[in-house]
Amino acid sequence: MSRRKGSCLCGALRYEIEWELEGELDGVWLCHCSNCRKASGGTGNAIVIVPRERFFWVSGEDHRVTYELRPTYSITRCKTCGTPLPAEEDETNVYLTAGTLDDPIGVGIKTHIFCGSRADWDHDMDGVRRFDERSS
Questions:
Q1: Which DSSP string do the residues of 64-94 spell out, in sequence order?
Q2: Is 130 inside a domain boundary?
Q3: Where is the CENP-V/GFA domain (predicted)?
């Protein structure tokens, strides 16, 4: 087993995930549904699905604010910095926002979901200018 750490932007909320290195994670999923676009403020949400028994809050649980989007699905944010943190949909899995992981996970994007809900401006990325850093 290996442990990877994650946190919010201000560091108030910290968690760890545990998994076997080979084959357990199914890569990063990019969800383009309207709820994920609203929750992230961007093109969607990059998530890593982790079995609930392998997810552990380490510190800062008093900084958690949970929003129930529907009876079986809630999202968590840090009440100090607003970072979106793990979403919980059922008793078996936790849906981590991949950008909150502090440690590399060694897998890339494997799946796009809810592409039918994709924003009309989130297309044709191959011809878009790219920069290694922000340009003035």
A1: EEEEEEETTEEEEEETTT--EEEEE-SSSEE
A2: no
A3: 4-122
We report the CATH number of the domain holding residue 53 as 2.170.150.70
Domain that holds residue 36: 2-119
96: nearest Cα among 2, 7, 1: 7
Query: Over its length of 136 residues, how does the chain's per-residue pLDDT go in tens digits?
Result: 788 899 999 999 999 998 765 556 678 888 888 888 888 888 888 999 888 888 999 999 899 998 887 777 788 899 999 999 888 777 788 888 999 999 887 888 888 999 898 888 877 777 777 778 876 6
How much is the pTM? 0.82
Total number of domains constituting the chain: 1
